[in-house]
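Please decode residue identities from the backbone states below.
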């Protein structure tokens, strides 16, 4: 077993400051285009957004994407053409399966800025009916352990209920796990067996790691969390805002050690 861990440094991500919106793009998005970082398997967008109070993304359309928001701080008001209206808070995960087409808006609710990760994946087939799901995961649930917050339809513990417990159901071969890792604490993760998609299966596995940039917008002054990622024959230290591509084989073990002085909020995607 072996693994390659390839850094995606925060300072090299696409970014924009529109006043009302400060955003970083892991993959090509809007005016930021980078052929070396267009997507990773079915993972297409990871934007870390900060939206100022009483502003946001006005009503606009999407289709043929699975779109989910992972709320870090503040409150995000969601409205859509399916009749959903909801205010999302820290620990909430909201998933919109855009399918054949939806329109929605995302606006900072209340007096404070909202900080959230906006994530898009490519569905395993087109023409799906639009759907909407929300889940909540407390800080205590995520403390020093992995919690699956999004997982493929049909996977273990995945419910098709609009609200409920367990991971939100995504119609892509993607599993998102999250943790709040304390200083001097180590977690492991085993690269899982592949999901069989249209008869295709492989022992080669992909994962993507993202460290939430909790201490501020400017990556050059971000402090606190520092996480050492190690796998068979590979090692890398990431700070807030950094990410990494992982290429490995089924059963390879990854270790995550918080070598910094503050809690690290980590997102881990197993992708195909």
């Amino acid at each position: 077993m072996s693994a390659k861990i390839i850094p995606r440094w925060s300072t090299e991500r696409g970014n924009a400051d529109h006043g009302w919106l400060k955003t970083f793009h892991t993959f090509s998005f809007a005016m930021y285009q980078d052929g070396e970082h267009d997507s990773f398997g079915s993972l297409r967008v990871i934007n870390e957004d900060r939206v100022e109070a009483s502003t946001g993304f006005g009503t606009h359309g999407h289709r043929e994407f699975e779109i989910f928001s992972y709320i870090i701080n503040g409150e995000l008001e969601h409205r859509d053409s399916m009749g959903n209206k909801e205010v999302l808070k820290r620990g909430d995960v909201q998933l919109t399966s855009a399918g054949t087409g939806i329109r929605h808006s995302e606006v900072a609710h209340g007096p404070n800025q909202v900080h959230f990760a906006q994530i898009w994946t490519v569905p395993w087939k087109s023409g799906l009916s639009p759907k909407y799901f929300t889940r909540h995961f407390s800080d205590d649930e995520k403390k020093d352990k992995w919690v699956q917050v999004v997982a493929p339809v049909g996977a273990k513990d995945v419910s098709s209920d609009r609200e409920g417990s367990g991971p939100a159901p995504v119609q892509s071969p993607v599993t998102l796990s999250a943790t709040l890792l304390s200083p001097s604490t180590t977690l492991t993760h085993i690269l899982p067996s592949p999901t069989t998609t249209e008869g295709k299966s492989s022992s080669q596995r992909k994962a993507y790691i993202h460290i939430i940039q909790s201490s501020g917008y400017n990556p050059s002054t971000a402090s606190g969390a520092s996480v050492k990622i190690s796998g068979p024959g590979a090692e890398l230290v990431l700070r807030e805002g950094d990410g990494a591509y992982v290429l490995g084989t089924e059963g390879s073990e990854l270790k995550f050690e918080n070598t910094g002085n503050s809690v690290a909020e980590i997102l881990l995607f197993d992708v195909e």
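Observation: Residues 3-271 form a domain with the Jelly Rolls fold (CATH 2.60.120.10).
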